[in-house]
Amino acid sequence: MTTVSMMLLYVFDCSDKEDTTFQVDNKGDFKSSLMVDVKGMLSLYEAAHVRFHGEDVLEKALIFTTTNLKSMMKSSTFTCSPIGRQVQHSLEQPFHKGIPRLEARRFISLYQENDATWNDIVRKLAKLDFKLVQALHKQELCDISRWWKKLNFALKLPFARDRLVECYFWIVGTYYEPSYALARLFLTKVIALTSVVDDIYDAYGTIDELKLFTDAFERWDSSCVNQLPGYMKVCYQTILDEYDEMDAVMNKEECSYHVHYAKEAFEQRRGHVASAVECFMREYGASKQEACNEINKMVEEAWKDVNEGCLARSTVIPRPLLMAILNLTRMVLVVYKYEEDAYTHSDTRMKENVTILFIDPIDP
User: Fold this and answer.
1) pTM, entire model
2) Please, which residues bridge with residue 30 across strands?
3) Hey, what long-range contacts does 241-245 have (CB within 8 A, 24 or more apart)?
4) Which residues have CB under 8 Å from 211's CB, separation 6+?
5) N or C: which end of the chain has fewer CB within 10 A?
6) Helix, strand or coil for residue 237?
7) Closest CA to 117 of 39, 48, 65, 41
């Protein structure tokens, strides 16, 4: 039995003690001899991120594999190798917590030249799939860009962040499949307009103006437009018009629950509040680093809830909707990791991700 098989047997079939105990020492820890199989170590590391609450073996596996993989990265020779680059990326972005489309693109690039076991037929199919879907996404982005330019917010609302491409990237990360083209169109509009509303609340509007703006949304009445300042009129009327357009489309044809979700999102707004880190620091008298560490622990516990909710067989929630929720969770992690807001500061990691998905062609 290979080292990979032994480790996976230990993780996923712990009920058979006679077959698994040889992988741990007398203290119940993983044996250091398992370190010789780097691919097996990496596979176990990735599998450990799909753990539920109470899965102590996977908790130990994550600590064990993380510690040893980081140790391997201290070798410059290993770091420059194909498997070393894969380990480095996985330590920064575990596959389960990554954006599926983005991870697929990176996987193709990493393996097509460096893995002798790569199946040529699978390689061609993977590249063809990516090219076809990328072409569809490019066309959608062109269409939504024309809509955005027609609104002329850059001139009418110059204080607002111009992040249409980033908004579309966010929605593609939630569900990229061709069948959700209409939902992507609607939700990109929703998130782009919501971003403008967010900037009005957070960065531009006065208290008195924001009270009027809030009241207008609560009443959801076109007659409220005349009570708003000029820049708020532009934003509010645009939202009303887009909502009516989506409603008309949905009345003409049967739409998925994703599209209905896009419509309902127009009725929600986000106020400006202190960040979770700031709240934790104030409540517990903690330093910023202590607050971040504790919140990261909460995030890991929340991921276990997400895993269990998405993988539980007893759920009555449609699988496509569960996957959209899971992918949206992944998007939040990718966009806001490394203590940076890649949405606001889009010339950093966000630019690289957008380029990979929508601009760079895949090698033939």
Assistant:
1) 0.80
2) 24
3) 242/189, 242/193, 242/266
4) none
5) C
6) helix
7) 39
